[in-house]
Structure formats: structure tokens, C-alpha cells
UniProtKB/TrEMBL annotation:
Signal peptide: none
Protein name: Uncharacterized protein
Pfam families: SnoaL
Gene Ontology biological process terms in this record: polyketide metabolic process
Organism: Streptomyces kanasensis
Gene3D superfamilies reported for this sequence: 3.10.450.50
Length: 129
């Protein structure tokens, strides 16, 4: 398996494990020695990440993360995902996420994201995913 394919698997497992309710395991298995966060609303480091995931799951205990696409080049992995905060609630269809992860030696060390609410109505029929 190439490093790029391995990096994709690392990110998918990390992301699904964390948002599936076990951010501590995701960190233990997949974080590098540093975690640099570029979201201006989030702090660096594994403790901040764990706190965020635990808070989000506390607010939305049934949330579901569905990774739609994974693209990788070198040490960068990009995911396009649907974060459904309240599955079945048509008034809150969730968020579209584009997450960019940088890895070193097969471990996540840096993260950027772009987040957009999924609208209940759109100007076209193409969908966001």
C-alpha cells in the first residue's frame, strides 16, 4: 500500500472513530506529537479536540458523520463529509464539511476546515454531496 493510500485510511479511521464517540482512541491511534488547528474557533492540541467532540456529541447525541469523498496527495488528505447533527430532522439537515489534514509519518498533525450549513432549499437540484 502506498503512503498516500495509508494516509487516507488513517484519516478516515481517525475521523470516524472520533465522531463516532471515541475521540480519545482516535487521538491515541492517529495523532502525531503536535496537533495544529487552523479553525479560528478551536485551540491546538488533543485536549481541545477531545473537548470539542465531547461537547458536540453532548449537544447532538445522535449525530452521524458520513464521509462522501477522500482525496489525497502526498502528506495531505481532504475529506468531503456530511455531518448530520439530528438525523431525521428535516429542519436541521446538518452541515457540509471540507476537512484538510496534514500527516507526518502516518499521523495527523495539522487540520483546516470549511463548514457550511446544508440549506433546506436550494437554487438548484444538484445537492451538496
Amino acid at each position: 500500500m502506498s503512503d498516500t493510500e495509508r494516509n487516507k485510511q488513517v484519516v478516515v479511521d481517525y475521523y470516524q472513530t472520533a465522531f463516532g464517540g471515541n475521540p480519545q482512541k482516535a487521538i491515541a491511534d492517529h495523532f502525531g506529537p503536535v496537533y495544529i488547528q487552523h479553525n479560528p474557533d478551536a485551540q491546538d492540541g488533543p485536549e481541545a479536540f477531545t473537548g470539542f467532540v465531547n461537547w458536540l456529541r453532548g449537544e447532538y447525541p445522535n449525530l452521524r458523520l458520513d464521509i462522501k469523498r477522500v482525496i489525497a496527495e502526498g502528506d495531505m488528505v481532504v475529506t468531503h463529509s456530511h455531518l448530520d447533527l439530528e438525523p431525521g430532522n428535516s429542519d436541521n439537515p446538518g452541515r457540509a464539511l471540507a476537512d484538510f489534514f496534514r500527516l507526518e509519518n502516518g499521523k495527523v498533525v495539522e487540520h483546516w476546515d470549511v463548514i457550511q450549513d446544508v440549506p433546506t432549499q436550494a437554487a438548484n437540484d444538484n445537492g451538496m454531496f
